[in-house]
Amino acid sequence: MLTGQESTEPGAVPFGVGGRELLARAPLDGAYRGRVSSLCRLIDAVDFDIDAVAGPIRARLCGHRGYTAVQAIPGIGPVLAAVFVAEIGEIDRFPGPAQLASWAGLTPRHRESDLVVHRGRITKQGSTLVRWAAVEAAHGVPHTAGWLTSTRARVAERRGRNIATVAVARKLLTLVYYGLRDGHIRALHAAKAAV
């Protein structure tokens, strides 16, 4: 709409924090102004509904040790941490992080007969929401995340970008497991190799 009205400001982004001010200042014709106003009212209504649900969720999670600990992992913010806490539930039902990764469907398929072993794609069995959250967190890992970034680069060089993303998602789920179990993250920084 803004492009059709020739009213875009250079470098201005209508989806950022100052987007509302940009839309309010934009000189738009009647039909365009009505459409923008209608969409802004719709955004306000959805924001109101989100706030009505987010408040009780925040109150319920504020005292959860694992929720706070998981947010210390690079790439995981409050929303993904809430998804992990809600979907995984009691972490004690998993003996270890490998079982959590398997439950999330992030482990490779394994078929064997006698001495022949075939490893395939990830199983995609289990919780699709936890798998999605882990992959989203893997995409959100900043380039300054140390050993997670080097793991992604090393695997991507050998196997490709998508397989590297799944590998980092598995590593993140390992950190999530320990964060939910212990209430803190121990292995955010990889240990230095012995010389």
Automatic annotation (TrEMBL):
Annotated Transposase IS116/IS110/IS902 C-terminal domain residues: 69-139
GO biological process: DNA transposition
InterPro entries: Transpos_IS110, Transposase_20
Family annotation (Pfam families): Transposase_20 (PF02371)
GO molecular function, one term: transposase activity
Domain of life: Bacteria
Protein name, UniProt field: Transposase IS116/IS110/IS902 C-terminal domain-containing protein
Protein's organism: Micromonospora tulbaghiae
Upper taxonomic lineage: Bacteria, Bacillati, Actinomycetota, Actinomycetes, Micromonosporales
